[in-house]
Each structure stands twice: as structure tokens, then as C-alpha cells.
């Protein structure tokens, strides 16, 4: 419910459209009731052969009412839909602003297909919140109350019948439908999320499925997921139609009851027969605003679930927004790094990725983090980049807790190379200028030469994800982008894993030259080129097992020495 309240707050940002749509809808609704009442009265009055001017006046009233109803209905449609589309726009912007701060860490918590279903599907689901959830009950109640007040001047018995009809068709029956619909709606959303996940995996993994000859099996899974979703969607639609038909049947029974009670009242003289047709027409029309309430549970459940799923994604942002800690900007110059008793376990896992990590990296130092695959090296880098948050312990940057820094401030002041670096479809120049717009074409050409890419031109096309580049070219282009940024904090995750030894050595020479006064942290499973590092951190199973300079570790003949000997034997 709290998430829906947030949605209401966003809707009320454009309160003028909301209020005008409700006002016009009320005018349209009450005018429709008045028109039917006037028609009923006109039919009865015409049977008594009144003077012609009386009929002309009544016809004129009906005509004016028809024009007023059409005009107000147009105004209601215009302002309600404008409010809805504006709400969707504001909701997307609001959600994206909060999502942007968490985007890097979200991929470790949600499968990409599920995340896509939330960002696209759940936001779209909320388009029905105003038109089908918030707005109809207000119109139904206001029109019913006005109608009951009018009818009370003619028959209290019919007022009681209309009130019973309002309670049945507007409250009790929709509540019963809501109870029955809940399981169906939950299954439908689960199947939709499963289908989105399967479709995303099919697109992302198409090449691998094709190479391993498993594409047909994956297509069968995709078709099965699609059929399951279609089946649940059809079942939900059938439930909704059934609910509306029941609600319509009940409202018609109330109309027949109004006719019977009205006829009895006319027979015993408590009601003028001139008004019987008018009251029947009124009851026939007023229920037009309650029968749609049968679909209210479906849209309410859908909106609440969508808002809850969206709220779950940005829950961390809500917690950070309520924090009393004042966020700081990243310190200028090369920072120092200190970890005190850091533990980290990924959600849903029992194994600790990092366990009791204590580490100090002086400002301007050059540090290598080495160890076997899965030892926690990249996770340690993610903590420093504020892509992950430690479960226990502290990470201090220049003496300040990393949680007190704005994530954007950390990223802005860091030169980052990840294991997988994204390249956008465009030119080499456009991908380099992603890091900095201050470099001239001549600067960029010299940079390409420095990273051993003299054969690339700035106008050369780069495909999405750099698919037309080799693995080594992508790593060298990522290094060029990091150098172009010019920050004082370097976080490099396997920056040379796809390079030959000669090119690797040239890149390390460039790094030492450009980052002479900067703080550098390099994660690598290769031990070549680390002799000039100020210290080397050796990790295994999430723990630091050794620490020291290259010479110190080789003399100690410990874990690092063994890794180095294994590497030498492999390279022989």
C-alpha cells in the first residue's frame, strides 16, 4: 500500500488535470442520470397530452442536456487521459532517477529479464491505476449520492433499494471477486516475469545456443513459457468478464426491484404514477457507474503488485534517502584506501565472498591483487567502486567511510576497466570521448598509438559491445578510455588478460607513466609485470593470505611464490 501512496503522490503532481477530469466525469455522470430521468418524465407526461409548449420545453431540456453530457464527456476523457500519460511520464522519470543510482549493483540481484519486466511491464501496468482504480470509486460514490438525494424526494423505498444496489455492486461483489482473483493475478505476473526472462536469455545467448546446437531446446522452453503466460492471461480475462457479467446481472435485478416497488407504491397511492418511468430510468442509468467496479479488484491487484515490484528494486535508494548521514564528494587527488574487518556475502548465498579483509593502500601507491579465480579479487574492486556494499566492516577512502560518498562522485573520480567493458555502436572517437570531451583529435590519435592501436582510425566504426574488435583490441581501447578520463584513482580488473606479453608490458609502462602520482589497484590472475608494484595482495577463498612487495613475496616462498612457479612451468 505504501508503494501505491507514492504513485498517488506522483499523480497529484498534476493535480489540475486530476481535479478537472473528476469534475467533468461527475458532470457527465449526473447529466446522464438527469437525461434519462427527463426522458422518463417526458414519456409519462406526453401520455397525458399536455400543452405543446410543455413538451417543447422538455425536449429543449433534453437537447441541452445531451450537448452538456457530450461536452463534459469529452472534457473528462481529455483530462483523465492527459493526467494518465503525464503520470506515466513522471513515474518513469522518477523511477529512472532512483534506479540510476543503483543500476550497477542491481545486476547482481535480479536477472536481466526480470529487471526488464519490472522496468517496462510494471510501469505500464500502473497506467490503469488512475483510470481504473483511483478515479471510478470517486465518480460512483458522488453520482450515487446525488442521485439518491434526488430520488429521496419521491420514494424512500427506492432510495433503500438503490443504496443496497450500491453496496452490492460497488463494494461486496468486487471484494468477493478480489479474493478469487488474487491467485490468478499472481500466477499471471509470475508467468510474465518468467517469459521476459526466457526471451532476454534467448536474445543474449543466441550465439551460444546456436554453437552448442541447443537452440531448438531453448525455443521449446520459450514457447512453453509463452503458452503458459497466454493461458494465465486468458484465464484472468475470463474471470474479469465473469465478474462484470455477475455485477451487471445484480444491477439489473435491482432495476426490476425498483420497478416492482415503484408499481406497488403507485398502486397504494404513495407515489404519483407520473414519476414511475422516471425513477426506473434513473435506476437503469445510475448503475452504469457501479458495474465497472467488477474490474476494480483486477486493476487494483495489478497496480499494487506492480508498485510493490518497482518499490523492491529501488528499496535501497529509499533507505539511503532516509539516512541522516550527509553525503560527501570524493576527495581531490590520489586517495588512500583502508578496509577494516570487511565481510561480504551475496544475497541468496551462504558462502562468504570476502571474509575478514584488513588492508591499507597509501595515497599514490600501486597495488596488485592476485589469486586464483573466485578468490574475491573482483568483488574487492567492486567495494572500492561502490558497486557492492559490505555486510560487515568498514571501507574508508581518505579516512571517510565509502557510504558517505555519492556513488556518482566515486565513479566520476575513478579510471575504471572492468572484465567486460561495454562499447557503443559508433566511431572509435565517440567511444573514447565517452570518458572526456576535452581531448582533441590529435590527442586521441596519440592515445591510440600509446595503447598499441595505431591501425585504428578515429572514424572507424565500432559495433555494439565491440563485436568487430578482438578481445585484445577491446582491452586496449578500454585502457585508452581510462587514460583519457584522467582521474587520480585507477581500478583495473584484468586489464591485460587477452594481450601478449610484449603488448602487456607496453600497457603497464603507459600505466606507470600516466599514474605516477595516482592510487592504482590492479586485479590480475597473471603475475607478469608486477615487479614495480608497491605491494601485492594475495587472496584465496575470500581472504588475504599474503601481502608484500614482489621481492618480499618471492623470498618468503609462500603462496605467491608457488603461483609464480606454476605460471613459469605453464609458460615454458
From TrEMBL:
| Name this polypeptide is given | Thiol reductant ABC exporter subunit CydC
Q: Where are the transmembrane segments?
A: 18-38, 50-68, 133-151, 157-179, 249-267
Q: Which InterPro entries match?
A: AAA+_ATPase (IPR003593), ABC1_TM_dom (IPR011527), ABC1_TM_sf (IPR036640), ABC_CydC/D (IPR014223), ABC_transporter-like_ATP-bd (IPR003439), ABC_transporter-like_CS (IPR017871), P-loop_NTPase (IPR027417), Type_1_exporter (IPR039421)
Q: Which compartments is it annotated to reside in?
A: Cell membrane
Record domain ABC transporter: where: 337-566
- PANTHER family in the record: ATP-BINDING CASSETTE SUB-FAMILY B (PTHR24221), TRANSPORT ATP-BINDING PROTEIN CYDC (PTHR24221:SF653)
Cite the entry's keywords alphabetically.
ATP-binding, Membrane, Nucleotide-binding, Transmembrane, Transmembrane helix
Q: Which residues form a coiled coil?
A: none
Q: Which residues form the ABC transmembrane type-1 domain?
A: 19-288
Recorded name of the encoding gene: cydC
UniProt key word Nucleotidyltransferase:
no
- What is the topology of this protein in the membrane according to its UniProt annotation? Multi-pass membrane protein
Q: Which Gene3D superfamilies match?
A: ABC transporter type 1, transmembrane domain (1.20.1560.10), P-loop containing nucleotide triphosphate hydrolases (3.40.50.300)
Output the superkingdom of the source species.
Answer: Bacteria
What CDD domains is this protein classified in?
A: ABC_6TM_CydC, ABCC_MRP_Like
UniProt keyword Transmembrane helix present: yes
| SUPFAM superfamilies membership | ABC transporter transmembrane region, P-loop containing nucleoside triphosphate hydrolases
Amino acid at each position: 500500500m505504501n508503494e501505491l501512496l507514492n504513485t498517488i503522490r506522483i499523480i497529484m503532481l498534476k493535480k489540475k488535470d486530476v481535479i478537472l477530469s473528476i469534475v467533468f466525469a461527475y458532470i457527465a455522470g449526473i447529466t446522464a442520470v438527469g437525461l434519462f430521468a427527463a426522458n422518463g418524465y417526458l414519456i409519462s407526461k406526453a401520455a397525458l397530452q399536455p400543452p405543446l409548449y410543455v413538451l417543447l420545453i422538455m425536449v429543449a431540456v433534453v437537447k441541452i442536456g445531451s450537448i452538456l453530457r457530450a461536452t463534459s464527456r469529452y472534457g473528462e476523457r481529455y483530462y483523465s487521459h492527459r493526467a494518465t500519460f503525464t503520470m506515466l511520464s513522471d513515474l518513469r522519470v522518477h523511477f529512472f532517477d532512483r534506479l540510476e543510482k543503483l543500476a550497477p549493483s542491481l545486476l547482481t540481484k535480479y536477472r536481466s529479464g526480470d529487471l526488464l519486466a519490472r522496468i517496462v511491464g510494471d510501469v505500464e501496468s500502473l497506467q490503469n491505476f488512475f483510470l481504473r482504480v483511483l478515479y471510478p470509486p470517486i465518480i460512483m460514490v458522488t453520482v450515487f449520492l446525488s442521485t439518491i438525494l434526488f430520488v429521496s424526494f419521491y420514494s424512500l423505498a427506492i432510495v433503500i433499494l438503490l443504496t443496497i444496489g450500491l453496496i452490492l455492486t460497488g463494494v461486496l461483489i468486487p471484494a468477493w471477486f478480489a479474493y478469487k482473483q488474487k491467485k490468478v493475478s499472481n500466477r499471471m505476473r509470475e508467468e510474465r516475469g518468467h517469459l521476459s526472462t526466457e526471451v532476454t536469455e534467448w536474445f543474449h545467448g543466441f550465439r551460444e545456443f546456436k554453437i552448442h546446437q541447443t537452440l531448438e531446446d531453448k525455443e521449446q522452453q520459450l514457447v512453453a513459457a509463452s503458452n503458459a503466460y497466454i493461458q494465465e492471461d486468458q484465464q484472468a480475462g475470463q474471470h474479469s468478464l465473469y465478474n462484470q457479467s455477475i455485477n451487471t446481472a445484480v444491477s439489473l435485478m435491482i432495476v426490476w426491484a425498483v420497478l416492482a416497488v415503484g408499481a406497488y407504491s403507485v398502486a397504494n397511492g404513495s407515489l404519483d404514477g407520473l414519476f414511475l418511468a422516471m425513477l426506473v430510468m434513473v435506476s437503469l442509468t445510475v448503475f452504469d457507474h457501479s458495474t465497472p467496479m467488477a474490474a476494480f479488484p483486477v486493476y487494483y491487484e495489478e497496480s499494487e503488485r506492480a508498485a510493490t515490484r518497482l518499490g523492491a528494486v529501488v528499496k535501497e535508494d529509499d533507505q539511503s534517502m532516509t539516512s541522516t548521514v550527509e553525503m560527501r564528494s570524493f576527495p581531490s587527488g590520489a586517495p588512500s584506501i583502508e578496509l577494516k574487518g570487511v565481510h561480504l556475502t551475496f544475497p541468496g548465498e551462504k558462502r562468504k565472498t570476502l571474509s575478514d579483509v584488513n588492508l591499507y593502500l597509501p595515497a599514490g601507491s600501486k597495488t596488485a591483487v592476485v589469486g586464483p579465480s573466485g578468490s574475491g579479487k573482483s568483488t574487492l574492486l567492486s567495494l572500492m567502486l561502490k558497486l557492492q556494499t559490505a555486510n560487515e566492516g568498514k571501507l574508508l577512502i581518505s579516512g571517510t567511510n565509502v557510504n558517505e560518498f555519492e556513488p556518482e562522485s566515486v565513479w566520476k573520480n575513478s579510471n575504471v576497466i572492468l572484465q567486460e567493458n561495454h562499447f557503443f555502436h559508433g566511431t572509435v572517437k565517440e567511444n573514447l570521448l565517452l570518458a572526456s570531451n576535452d581531448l582533441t583529435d590529435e590527442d586521441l590519435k596519440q592515445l591510440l598509438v600509446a595503447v598499441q592501436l595505431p591501425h585504428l582510425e578515429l572514424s572507424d566504426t565500432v559495433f555494439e559491445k565491440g563485436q568487430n574488435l578482438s578481445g585484445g583490441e577491446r582491452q586496449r581501447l578500454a585502457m585508452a578510455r581510462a587514460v583519457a578520463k584522467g582521474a587520480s584513482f585507477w581500478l583495473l580488473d584484468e586489464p591485460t588478460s587477452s594481450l601478449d606479453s610484449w603488448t602487456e608490458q607496453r600497457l603497464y609502462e603507459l600505466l606507470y607513466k600516466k599514474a605516477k602520482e595516482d592510487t592504482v589497484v590492479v586485479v590480475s590472475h597473471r603475475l607478469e609485470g608486477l615487479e614495480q608494484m608497491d605491494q601485492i595482495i594475495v587472496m584465496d577463498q575470500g581472504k588475504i593470505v599474503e601481502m608484500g612487495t614482489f621481492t618480499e613475496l618471492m623470498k618468503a616462498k609462500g603462496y605467491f611464490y608457488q603461483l609464480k612457479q606454476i605460471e613459469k612451468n605453464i609458460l615454458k
